[in-house]
Amino acid sequence: MNKGFAFGLILSLVFAIAAIMSPAKSQEQKPQRRSQSRPVDENRFPIADYAAPEPSDPTEHSRRQARGKKYDKSRWNIYPDAQWSVTQTHALDQNLPALPRAQSSAVIVGQITDAKAYLSNDKTGVYSVFTVQVHEVIKNSSQLSLSTGSAIEVERDGGRVRFPNGRTLIYIATNMPQVGLRYVLFLTNAQGQSDFQILTGYELREGKVHPLDDLLNLYTYENADETTFLKQLHTANLDASPR
Predict the structure, then answer these.
(1) What are the tens digits of pLDDT across the range 142-160?
(2) Is residue 30 part of a domain?
(3) Residue 21 lies inside a defined structural domain of this protein
(4) What are phi and psi of 15, to 5 degrees?
(5) Structural domain of residue 64, as residue ranges?
């Protein structure tokens, strides 16, 4: 065999093997962003008693009925003989912008002073109600009154349920704010309802900002300086997603 031909054949084999062992750049995949998730703090979820009686006060009874109706025919399948301890579902738009003013009826800064949970009228759903001492109103396009120094109630789907047998189950749709802490809350008021619902928010703790919900865009502001964040909240184009 011609030596030149043999040498060329060997080189061809070497390059062929290298090509097989080294995938083409076009086939390389970019590393995916790490999913942001935190352990569930059950203590943040208020408890509703399954056997609790209806309010005796007519005004409170009427308001509870109006609230509970929104959570009737729930997907939770709440019943005393359930065998699991945690039921979880995702209720938020994963593409929600970091500062969702356009999606909010109101934006406030305030402190959570109380939290309670209730069953829906048909006892298929559970929802939590938080009392907020309003420190600042950044936006209010709803028909509901909002003012600095006032106390309002805001809702979120989910909570804990205590059954007559003593068993307590947790139903998680979103994370819950904690009593005693300050928040920036983005609120909705769908179809002119008489109450606000929490769309999402940020916890303000020890001078830092922490997302309330595990949404990727919200982590743009994880551990941001509180003062800088609040200034941006007032001056930035809040209807646009951060770049």
Answers:
(1) 989 899 999 999 999 999 9
(2) no
(3) no
(4) -65, -35
(5) 41-235
